[in-house]
Amino acid sequence: MTAKRKPTPQKNRPLAETIAAALENGEALRCDLGRGARLHIDRALPFLVIHRLDRVREAARAVASANASYLLFRNQSEARAIIAQVSAAMTEKFGAFLVIEIGELEKDHLAEDAAHLPPFEIELAASEDDATQSALAAMATAIQSTDVKFRLPQVSKSALATGKSAPLVARLTDLPALHVAFAPIYRAPDADTVYPDLRERVIENMVDSLLQASAAFARKTGAMKPATHRALGRQVFIDTVTRADRAIDEVAQSFDFLLSVTPINARPAHEQFVESGCKRTPRFLYRPLTASVDRQKRALYSIDLDRFEDPVLSRLYEEKRQELDLQLSMIASRETPRFREFGRALYGSIEPSLLKAAKSILDKCGPGSATDTTQVGTALVKKRADAMIAAYAGDDPTFNAAIELRDDLPSGMMVTGRRLLISNGMSMPKGRVEALLSHEVGVHLLTYFNGSAQGLRLFRSGLAGYEGLQEGLAVLAEYLVGGMTPARLRLIAARVIACSMMLDGAPFQTTFNAMTRDYGFSQSTAFTLTLRVYRGGGLAKDAVYLRGLLEILAHLEGGGSLDPFWMGKVAASHFPVMQELGGRGLLKSPRILPRFLTQKGASERLEKARAGLSPLDMINA
């Protein structure tokens, strides 16, 4: 079966014919059977996870429906007919087939009258054939390696029960079968209260354990040889996911966060600040908001994230919703104390180790004199940007970035979506142009277009918290092209100190004075640096450059690869998620690779980073 095709609901056709046609043609299948019952098969697999809907067992239902091949049923006769039809087709294809029934125990018995948090029960039962016993053993091992809110699982194993109360799989005597039932620890005893976080953790752990059991069965029988158990997971986004993805993206595109909090009067404000003897707090002006915050928040929380049938994707979108909520709260709170505190929640405080690293850089890397005194302006920067974008477009025509020259930006450039914004007041050392364009075009724009190719817009707008890793990669790009200078590294370190001072409540002038008096920055550089940190009411974003760089250097020294990070805009915390989604075939390899990786000296510099490199070692390397 193809993993790229969405399961299409089948209507106006006898069920058996619908199933037979899909299985014969290798098509994805999604049949609604009424009252919540459903058969879903996104591709041919040697197992089927089933769950009976006769009771309120929402976690077990979610576990079942998170699989690539599942059946939710009410009518046992109908279920047995479906299982027989699917098992016959899959056994013919793979030579073996496993049916796994997932359910919940009636109560969390071990928690009754317990003074401390006890273990929680999980019952496993399996048919006696070797392959299913291997699946049972893998399931037990996987379960016992998990920790759910300080309660360890207590696994019991048995033969499949018989009788009226026996699970359906016990009656499928001609098929390998595994039955799993877990205690409902996500529900309050004797109440309808559900603990959402605990519920999600139980679901994720059980889904992963089921996949490990399925992989063990597949390997034992020779039905499949998956490289990892995750390769047996979902490989198709259902319509609920794509609808939510579009809805989240519409909210994200309704406002431009950085432009909303960046002053439009940077140059006049600087002139007025200098005229006051650098003593009067500058007054910054901002663009009118392009979105109604209340309306966008209502839209954000009207998006249904509960029916994804995929715990991993659900978590990614829930994180993104929380991030967008914070950003909307911030732009609604511009120029108020609340802005700074919302920013602290979004970007975090300055950890002592990061502040220590920043101070160490400034202590060991003094102001000195610039080695490159040739300054270039907007015209040359745009010309070089045009050439770099054209080169990437030559590699892949989907790289259709646009350049905008702006009067309403501080000196510099920034990327928003597919646009590269360049200030008309741009002035920078000629030797830094290639490095800065590698930063903006080779990382920020490249990951936007690669993310656009992933099938979900989330990977182009960015997973929650992606900015730290993005900026770390972008600074690494500057180093790889030989463009890391003492002045640049000092600026990145000083931003951390300025953010720390701002978060501690220091006024604009105090931080500005520290940058000029204590750290030797020129008035112009110190003003721009301080403006970036105090914009909107206090924005701690600029600390992510050094934080992200240190994360990337540690990742490389630990033997990590950069390849997953070119797929889209992701955070360091998402590396395991990217591996899982990649293993399931849900992520594509990056369409475009950074051109700076093949520039002269880049591979040698990258090897130095893998061997262990400090930020100071990157200067002029």
UniProtKB/TrEMBL annotation:
UniProtKB keywords: Hydrolase, Metalloprotease, Protease
Named cofactor requirement(s): Zn(2+)
Protein name: Flavohemoglobin expression-modulating QEGLA motif protein
A biological process term (GO) from this entry: proteolysis
An annotated Gene Ontology molecular function: metallopeptidase activity
